[in-house]
Design brief:
The structure holds three protein chains of three kinds.
Chain A (H helix, E strand, L loop, with lengths): L2 H16 L4 H14 L6 H34 L2
Helix pairs in contact in A: 1-2, 1-3
Chain B lengths: L4 E6 L2 E3 L21 E3 L1 H16 L4 E10 L4 H10 L3 E6 L7 H15 L3 E5 L10 H9 L3 E11 L2 E8 L2 E8 L2 E5 L11 H7 L4 E4 L32 H10 L4
Parallel strand pairs in B: 1-4, 1-6, 4-5, 5-11, 6-10, 7-10
Antiparallel strand pairs in B: 2-3, 7-8, 8-9
Chain C lengths: L1 H14 L6 H10 L10 H14 L22 H15 L5 H4 L5 H10 L5
The chains are: A mainly alpha, B alpha/beta, C mainly alpha.
Chain lengths: 78, 255, 121
């Protein structure tokens, strides 16, 4: 497995674990997403897939942050 | 020449802020089995602020030490703090026992003395018990000045200027170290810890001690009688005119 | 590690006129206990790894033997293996570099690798 792909999968799994939700469900979605692109092994297509993965990672981070702090704001400041 | 700053950041493991807690079957507490736990958001903000201060004052800040008083699983929270930039950490393992703010403050006082800390930054309250007492009690026990509900912190040598969120606005105060600061939500926005940082943090020191190592016996002075959910909000009533509003309020004896 | 050196010193003090430095070490042991867990034997490692596979949803209910191959016997694909290796890293608080992780294809290989790591706990 391409080391970048492996690291991306690990990073996304880690984010999924920290997101308070159904880990197996998120994990399965990530798994299927990666498997769908399994034939992509190099070049521009790989770069695009990796970029998409990084985008998902950033989205998950923002969602987690929003969810936590929106809850705190709602409970303490509104 | 100003003295070196040794920051202490106490952190607490609580049920994740985004989750809705469920009351347990005996109505004495909250269901914790199979529930996700995380660092208290206000403690997260405290860690972020300590790391920011260190980055802005690399020469002045000697170290950041995190401490958690809780169950063995609180090690995860300390690892997160280490991953965010804290240098060393201590877990005071109290098992599954609930520790009251006064006991926490007494233990923290011992840690402050052991680590010779001169700046303690902690969350203003934990989202599980909402006491909002630990910072203030610690300041009282140590005889230190305190700046609570901080929304801005500026370190200048031995002095710290803190903007506090108070009813009706903000108040800015200035104090000389040593000092206790408790964090408000508006202080900063903590960054998410990525996996590589978490892995690197595994090599940083995490010591585990028991409370009697500090010569403190945990005593419970409060007894929880009952825990219940707040009453469900009843549906509102729509009114079509000011007169109707007035008569409805009179009906409810609010006017 | 500190506890081991403690007991060695205690044994020494019985046999000879060893300077009584034991009390301060004991006091230090109260402050610093980097790991209170017992030493990791292969049996304990095996137990914990089997338990890990039993609680992993994709392998729960399957027979976990030391000889079990991740792909052939446990039905895991390469992504699942990455996930499992991550769980093992977490469980034993160690980092497994990619080139080592690539060689872990059976339960026994996982056990052997952990056993070879000094800082696994």
């Amino acid at each position: 497995m391409n080391p970048k792909v492996r690291q991306l999968y690990k990073d996304l799994l880690w984010l999924a674990k920290n997101y308070p939700g159904d880990y197996p469900k998120i994990r399965d979605k990530l798994h299927d997403g990666f498997i769908r692109n399994a034939r992509v092994s190099s070049g521009e297509e790989l770069e695009k897939c990796l970029e998409h993965g990084e985008f998902i990672a950033k989205e998950l981070q923002s969602l987690y942050f929003l969810r936590t702090y929106r809850a705190v704001k709602r409970n303490y400041y509104d | 020449m100003s003295s070196k700053i040794r920051i202490l950041v106490p952190v607490k493991r609580v049920i994740d802020a985004a989750l809705k807690p469920r009351i347990n079957k005996t109505n004495t507490g909250v269901e914790s089995k199979g529930v996700k736990f995380s660092m208290n958001p206000f403690c997260d903000i405290a860690v972020e602020e300590a790391v920011k201060i260190k980055e802005a004052h690399k020469e002045a800040v000697e170290s950041i030490h995190a401490v958690s008083i809780g169950p063995s699983k609180a090690q995860d929270i300390l690892r997160t703090a280490l991953a965010k930039g804290v240098d060393t950490s201590t877990l005071v393992d109290v098992g599954e026992q609930e520790i009251e703010p006064l006991q926490v403050s007494k233990l923290l006082k011992k840690v402050v003395e052991q680590k010779d800390s001169n700046l303690v930054i902690l969350g203003k309250q934990a989202i599980d018990d909402d006491s909002n007492q630990t910072g203030q009690m610690l300041a009282g026990l140590l005889g230190w000045p305190q700046a609570t509900n901080a929304s801005k912190v500026v370190v200048e040598g031995d002095f710290v200027t803190v903007t506090r969120e108070v009813d009706g606005g903000a108040e800015t105060i200035r104090a000389k170290l040593p000092l206790i600061i408790t964090t408000d939500l508006r202080l900063n926005e903590p960054k998410f810890v990525t996996l590589p940082k978490m892995m690197k943090a595994k090599k940083k020191p995490l010591e585990i001690v028991k409370p009697d190592a500090y010569g403190v016996t945990i005593e419970e002075r409060l007894e929880i009688l009952k825990v219940e959910e707040p009453p469900a909000r009843s549906a509102g009533v729509k009114v079509s005119s000011v007169d109707e509003l007035v008569s409805k309020l009179q009906e409810l004896k609010a006017l | 590690m500190l506890r081991l050196s403690c007991s060695r010193l205690l044994k020494g003090s019985r046999a000879s006129a060893f300077p009584l430095r034991v009390p301060s070490l004991v006091a230090q042991a109260q402050w610093r206990q980097y790991s209170a867990a017992p030493a990791l034997t292969k049996d304990i490692i095996q137990e914990r790894i089997v338990e890990l596979f039993e609680s992993y949803d994709k392998t729960a209910g399957k027979e976990i033997l030391p000889s079990s191959s991740f792909t052939r016997d446990l039905g895991l694909d390469s992504l699942d293996t990455v996930e499992v290796v991550m769980e093992i890293e977490n469980e034993f608080s160690i980092i497994i570099p990619d080139h080592e992780a690539d060689e872990i294809k059976t339960v026994q290989q996982a056990i052997d690798f952990i056993a070879s790591q000094d800082d696994a706990c």
